[in-house]
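Instructor's aside before we start: the two examples that follow are unrelated to each other. I chose them only because their records fit on one page, so don't look for a connection. First example below.
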Amino acid sequence: MATITPAFVDTHCHLNAAEYAPDRDAVAAAAHAAGVTRIVVPAVERANFTVVEQYDRRYPGCRHALGIHPMYVDRAAEEDIVVLDAMLARGGAVAVGEIGLDFFVDGHDATRQAWFFVEQLRLARKYDLPVLLHIRRAQDEVLKHLRRIAVPGGIAHAFNGSRQQADAFIRLGFRLGFGGALTYPRARRIREHAANLPMEAIVLETDGPDIPPEFAPRTRNDPANLPRIATVLAELRGMALDELALRTTANALAVMPRLALDG
């Protein structure tokens, strides 16, 4: 009897990144061969809106999200929100993202980040789209905005907050993204969340080319790594890999319904 490869969804991979330029086609093909049947490719600024949109047609299983990342707002213009509005109106994006707040880097402009974040939350509400959140040292601030501007859920990407914050995101209809970081034994809080949070709240991601897993440190993180990352998560939760694949895929489709559509 032939072995059936479990199907996984990489809910966050920057396939358009320069690190993939030498062999992007091969990277996408290897991921698909490994059982990664869907890859969500989020934009980070206006300059790559069209690029990630084109990946829907170029790579089987790729779907795009559109947004302005908080680390890119310094070079963004207010008119970029108008462009984003027009592109979301086309109906092809599965989410608004990558958006959020990042207070980790010294000298960040919290006011400017907040303006772009709020405007994009309003677009997500307008188009009934979930959001892909980037959050560093801003969990409570992000939650404050989400309580004020209700959106149809989304994913708190690379989640590393407290259990109380995790529960707050879950109550707002969010799933929490886990990837390469959980493979490191020293990442105790992330591994504790991955093991103990409700299964319905968990989705998989690589954040490729970033956050390489423990089994491939200091290398480019490829979406084909996702099944091995999932194996570690399955071990942490004491469940079969096939079941984990089914449930995390179902979670991803539930929070991003347009991910299930072809084209």
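Example two begins here.
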Amino acid sequence: MKMKGYAMLGIGKTGWIEKEIPACGPLDAIVKPIAVSPCTSDVHTVWEGAIGDRKDMILGHEAVGEIVEVGALVKDLKVGDKVIVPAITPDWGSLEAQGGYSMHSGGMLAGWKFSNFKDGVFAEYFHVNEADANLARLPEGIDPASAVMLSDMVPTGFHGAELAGVEYGDSVCVIGIGPVGLMSVAAASLKGAGRLFAVGSRPNCVEAAKAYGATDIINYKNGDIVAQIMDLTGGKGVDKVIVAGGDNDTFIQAITMLKPGGRIGNVNYLGSGDYVRVPRIEWGCGMGHKTIAGGLMPGGRLRMEKLVSLMQYGRLDTSRLLTHRFKGFEHMEEALMLMKDKPKDLIKPVVVL
């Protein structure tokens, strides 16, 4: 049987295609989407060719859905269950997963399957490997549109705070307050940051950053962000930096504003360019104990269950991210183009099916 999907046709080209409904393996599930959201990663993939050319690959890696088929060896899930689908769906028996890096199971970044080397979730049906390990039930009373932020925005933003090693009382700067950066602000606040700087300029993002715990807003339109940080900290800089936006040269700013012994957590997808520049002197001539950690978010059921509990018990409100809501699959292209064009009032679009 055939299904429709919204796909990357080639670099710079997208459109609707038809494909066979995917087959379900013994450990796997077939899911029908309930709510999906496009991501800046989709934009990097299609219009920058960040991971190379892809032909007729269905896009999307953020979804909440309903299970329509499970494999014979699936134990914990059944047809009809509503589930949160993480963007990263590792192979949990791999050596990489056993070594603690499930997101790289099968090779670097290979835990990221959807819309990388496997058809994504912008389809009438999609396949999820190792369903018991990769899917989490959607609790009663949680809005699917808000819960779809748990697929990628929340775990990626939270991983930025984890990579940076945010601790109680730390001074923290989050560079970039799009949806991922906003979730980094929320995570840093939950992990006990003291003074929390958020770098951005769009009014709705600024207001959301304050609501998520930012104590200071740094507007790059008002001058160099490093100079502003140094002025506000008496020349000392910050303990931790989370990079959730910018470009390859953003690391120059991050390293410069970081105290010796500090950590940078990068969760920004660098979609173009060949090199990241590290300023020699500001990095302490290689001896400043300024650590740079960059990582793909972890996936899996356990992480999804922990993150959704923050929503259940009032610790995290992801609805602040949803600025544009659409009803119906036919709006998929419109939602994706919003992520590409990034109008000033956008934080995140969602399509409810």
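The chain is about 25% helix and 25% strand.
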